[in-house]
Design goal:
By secondary structure, the chain is mainly beta. It is built from 2 helices and 16 strands.
Length: about 280
């Protein structure tokens, strides 16, 4: 149980679409479920806003890659392309939160940061008993030989002034890992399961200095200072068209986060995200 009644949880479930579910009490912790894994941009609390953004889909006549070709998900303890997994996800969130254009792939040294798709509500009420199903898709183009970084989900802790003196209190890692929230997780590339040892990829990292947003949020957050979550670094894909899917069930039952107005916060979401990845040599369509 999370005993900090001042916790303000903002679930940001990103599909490229920013759906925010805010849990406001006094402070706010943003939970980003990157359904890239599906990236969830929800905010939990009194208001749930679903602000659809352009999907940014790019299409090209690319021949499908062989079915047996899949990206190698590098081991969680690897030091791939000059950084650890923790360092790459730290850099990803810094890029994601500080840029005004995070809907296209971004080259960060030897790797590419994969954008998140937009999503639409398909069904459900958003409760543990009747989870809301969100479905999103994005199509992107990568150059051959480009490894990429993608998060699966993240708790992001925010600042509320320009010096980050007023900020969210971090939940201990052991408590995050004990939360029964991700009840089902299926990540596939070209139809083959990947990252089946999901929780082995957990990271915890301080964004120092804080990643300040281009504009403060509607509830007064100025930036992010800490992130906990899961993601991966993938080796380059072969030329052709690839499909990455993430189907994830996220259930937050009663009895974990108390509502200062009485009772408990609870919710349920299912994220069904698809990335169409075209690997195209320069100068070819």
């Amino acid at each position: 149980m999370l005993r900090n009644s001042k916790l303000q949880l903002t679930l940001t479930i990103h599909w490229g679409l920013t759906m925010k579910t805010e849990i406001h009490t006094k402070q706010q912790t943003r939970l980003l479920l990157t359904s890239c894994l599906v990236m969830f941009s929800l905010m939990i609390w009194g208001t749930v806003t679903h602000a659809a953004q352009p999907a940014g889909i790019y299409t090209s006549p690319v021949v499908a890659a062989p079915a047996n070709v899949a990206a190698k998900i590098l081991p969680p303890q690897s030091h791939a392309y000059g950084k650890t997994l923790t360092q790459w996800l730290n850099a990803y969130w810094r890029w994601y939160y500080t840029t005004t254009n995070n809907t296209q792939p971004f080259k960060a040294g030897p790797v590419t940061f994969m954008p998140l798709p937009s999503g639409a509500l398909i069904s459900g009420e958003g409760t543990p008993e009747d989870p809301a199903l969100y479905r999103g898709q994005i199509e992107v183009t990568l150059k051959p030989g480009a490894p990429f970084v993608l998060p699966a989900f993240s708790f992001t802790y925010e600042c509320y002034d320009d010096s980050c003196t007023n900020k969210d209190v971090k939940i201990p890692d052991a408590e995050v890992l004990s939360l029964p929230i991700i009840t089902d997780h299926h990540l596939t590339l070209d139809g083959q399961p990947i990252q089946e040892n999901f929780w082995d990829y957990y990271i915890s990292t301080e964004l120092n200095p804080p990643a300040y947003y281009p504009q403060p949020t509607s509830y007064g957050a100025t930036g992010a200072w800490y992130a906990q979550g899961i993601g991966f670094v993938a080796a380059p894909l072969s030329p052709g068209k690839h499909t990455l899917t993430l189907l994830e069930t996220y259930i937050f039952p009663e009895g974990i986060i108390p509502n200062p107005n009485g009772g408990w916060f609870s919710w349920g979401y299912i994220y069904d995200n698809t990335w169409i990845i075209n690997v195209v040599p320069p100068g070819k369509q």
